[in-house]
Amino acid sequence: MTETGQAAARGTRTGFTTGACAAAAARAAVLGLAGGDVPERIESLLPNGDRVWFEIHDGQAGAAQAHAMVVKFAGDDPDCTDGAHLTVDLQLLPGRADEITFHAGDGVGMVTMPGLGLEVGGPAINPVPRKNIAENLREAAPDLLAQHGVAVTISVPGGQEMARKTTNARLGILGGISILGTTGIVRPYSTAAWRASVVQGIQVAATVGQGLVALTTGGRTETFAIATLRAERPELPQACFIQMGDFLRYALDEVVAQGIPLVVLGVMVGKLTKIAQGETITHANRNVVDTDLIAEIAKRIGASDEDCQAIATAETARFGAELMVERGLGDAFHQALAQAAIDTLLAPDRYDHAFALRVLVCDFSGQCVADVSSAPAPPRERPATAGRTGIDHLLDADTAADL
């Protein structure tokens, strides 16, 4: 764990993803494979480009095998994998230059259903952690990888029990947890302090005079939203971009309080579906994605009855989106889903056109697949609460009870 993470105020401490921990263990192990000794401390490259020191445990190395483990620190996020032992075993693949294969050990799940962007029958190790592990292996032992390959097996003792506290089984990931993370950093999205920081960010955005705030769900959607909006308005300051995580409700309530006239949502299909179905707290452990809604939208744009049935019985929104892309209906599907989200949020029993709404949707490679806008919001008197600062009002018992 970094000194920065240790020193941060409790309630806002960041941690590290399972993917970042596995990458650090893999980096330490490959140094042992290349030089005979597994270090006790390693500086590892994160997916976001940062470099962080990790403590390494149980390091062992031989001529063709190496082993290392990192204990996960989740910061102040109530993460069921906090304290998990992210364990990596490397096996040399002689003569198979630069080949890196990934395998699930004890406690890491296997993928049994489509719709996750991973091979059915393969390990539940997501694409960004795979790329990050490979980058660390090649950077730490370039001479070794120039001649040989490496088989990477990730294990998490107790992962089967941890997985029972997640939605993995419902998504068809069986036998353990997933190895996840798009930046390497775990932010305490589930805490009142993080919700308060989102609200405070919107208060700051209201003061910069741009008349908009861009709300995103994470690093990938923020990068997408920044690139899209700054291509149109290069002067937009960073203060206009807020990573709201799962807390759309608190973000939009503050938008109304501050009288901001335009909201841009940068989202991907899973969160977009939850918004369209009326969820404004979009955490995975809240209500499940309504695949019947996905099927209804697919039917509306001309999908076959057979495809609509497959979408309705799937476990993820991504399955339906990818099927519609395969059928040549991807653009129409994403546009219709974005419009459904707009209609839901701006309905009279919701925010009733208190602001204009633009929905930018990106796919899993960060490419724009929909850009849909509502009509401009009617003129309104600036609320008396506009321009207020401070976060104490978020830390009361009623707010905490929403977790």
Description:
With 403 residues, the protein is an alpha/beta fold. The protein has 14 helices and 18 strands. It has helices at residues 3-7, 18-35, 127-140, 142-147, 159-163, 192-205, 219-232, 248-258, 269-276, 291-300, 305-312, 317-326, 330-345, 397-400; strands at residues 15-16, 41-45, 51-55, 57-61, 65-71, 85-93, 100-104, 107-108, 110-111, 149-155, 173-174, 176-177, 185-186, 212-216, 241-243, 262-267, 356-362, 368-373. The strands form six sheets. The chain has a five-stranded mixed β-sheet. A five-stranded mixed β-sheet has the order 15-14-16-17-18. Strand 4 and strand 5 (65-71) form a beta hairpin. It starts with a helix and ends with a helix. Residues 1-9 and 384-403 have low confidence and may be disordered.
